[in-house]
Amino acid sequence: MRLRLPEERPTEPPTGYKIAHPMLSQDGTRAGFTGVSLGGALPYGVLADASCVYGLRHRAPSRRCDCGFHCVHDRSTAEGLLCTAEHRAAVLLEVTVLGRYLRFERGFRYARQRVRTATVGPCACGTVAAALADTGRGRPGWRELAPSCGGCLRGRTSVSLAAFARLAGEGLRVVAGRAVTVAPGDLGAVAELGVPELAAEAALLQARLDWFQAQLGRLGERGPGSGREG
Question: Compositionally biased, Basic and acidic residues: which spans (predicted)?
Fold first, then answer.
């Protein structure tokens, strides 16, 4: 007697979250993603079907295999994966689970997916990302990309977030997440800043630099022997 798992018939496809590395084709005409675990060797598009990574001739996902796309139910769980050193440059994907799927405690393993939104984290310097730039790693025919600000591109192959979305197609949205900045001195503790907040902080820093320069100028005018003797 075979044990049959209960079947779900949702009124609309489930939503899940995962992390992946953005990829750009060698000729710069296509964009996609690679997984961070089993599926890391096979770049996939915004709308894609899973296949067995072991080359076995069964439909994914199979209960006797660990093939298929993977995602978790909760966004914060996926965001937590970005804290590990090897995944800091990955992006957060919001996906629609399509086709056959197996439900687990924390997520799904499934046959087909559509990536709806890719959220790009900050540049390695902490600034809000403006582009996705070549990391120096990749797969045959594909370059791996990572978030980068304009100041850190340094001539590397790169695409803007809008250009990546256009190359990926299928209505993909690519958005920049907030930067995490440690403010110097007494400007406060760790704060999550967007572009307007960063501009305000930069203006404040510039004002303080101007004040220090004015003070140094006054000391220079007084000279070393201008102090009053007691």
Answer: 1-11
> pLDDT tens, 27-82?
999 999 999 987 777 899 999 999 887 778 888 898 888 889 999 999 999 999 99
Strand 173-176 to strand 107-120: parallel, antiparallel, or no bridges (unpaired)? parallel
Alpha carbons 110 and 104: distance in angstroms, whole number: 11
User: What number of other Cβ atoms are within 10 A of residue 205's Cβ?
Assistant: 14
Tens of pLDDT, residue by residue over 97-130, are 999 999 999 999 999 999 999 999 999 999 999 9
142-161 pLDDT per residue, tens = 999 999 999 999 899 999 99
DSSP 8-state assignment for residue 40: G
Preceding omega of 61 cis (within 30 degrees of 0): yes
Residue the block writes with tokens 């203006």 = 203
Residue by residue, DSSP assigns 61-126 as SPTTS--SEEEES-HHHHHHHTTSGGGTT-EEEEEEEEEEEEE-SSEEEEEEEEEEEEEE---TTS
If you ran DSSP here, which 8-state letter would residue 152 be given? G
Q: Is the dihedral of CA 166, 159, 16, 35 positive or negative?
A: positive
Question: What 3-state class would DSSP assign to 192?
Answer: strand
